[in-house]
Amino acid sequence: MDLVTIAQAQPYARLLDVNIVEASAERVIGELLIRDELCTSNGTMHGGVMMGFCDILGATGAWLALPEGANGTTTIESNTSMMRGPKAGTLVTGISTPVKIGRKLSVWQTEVTDPDGKKVCLVRQTQLVL
């Protein structure tokens, strides 16, 4: 499946306009341009958008790593550490990698950085294999 198809298959990824630039069972890289409508009243990226962006990347990796016979994956736990709030107009990059891939669960960690390489957030999520 090509990268455009992977992103377009996810309605929330389409809503946020997530650009998946690399995707495999070993690593998913995505970009998100912070638009005004994705910000809080002070013009910084909303925390829910940040969490959603990371969830899209981690879930994409978990889906690509599904064991034979699985029907899908769903997030059952997520922990987010927010370190800075990028302003509207900033292009952030997220890199999601597996911590563990199992038959029933997979755990993914996503680090988001700004264009200067400064950490924006770190998310660890657990995906249930369906």
Write the layout of secondary structure elements.
Elements: H1 3-8, H2 11-16, E1 19-23, E2 28-33, H3 47-64, E3 73-82, E4 91-101, E5 105-113, E6 119-129
Antiparallel strand pairs: 1-2, 2-4, 3-6, 4-5, 5-6
Q: Descriptors for this entry?
A:
130 residues; alpha+beta; Thiol Ester Dehydrase, Chain A; six-stranded antiparallel sheet; 6 strands; 23% helix
Within the CATH hierarchy, at the fold level, what is the topology?
Answer: Thiol Ester Dehydrase, Chain A
Instruction: Specify the CATH class.
Output: Alpha Beta
Q: How much of the residues is beta strand, in percent?
A: 35-45%
**Helical content (DSSP H or I, runs of 4+):** 10-25%
Largest sheet: 6 strands, antiparallel
Number of strands: 6
Sequence stretches where pLDDT stays below 50 over 5 or more residues: none
Structure report:
The protein has 130 residues and is an alpha+beta fold. The protein has one domain (3-129): Hotdog Thioesterase (Thiol Ester Dehydrase, Chain A, Roll), CATH 3.10.129.10. It has helices at residues 3-8, 11-16, 47-64, and strands at residues 19-23, 28-33, 73-82, 91-101, 105-113, 119-129. The longest helix is centred in the middle third of the chain and has 18 residues, at 47-64. It is globular. The two termini are 20 Å apart. The mean pLDDT is 94.
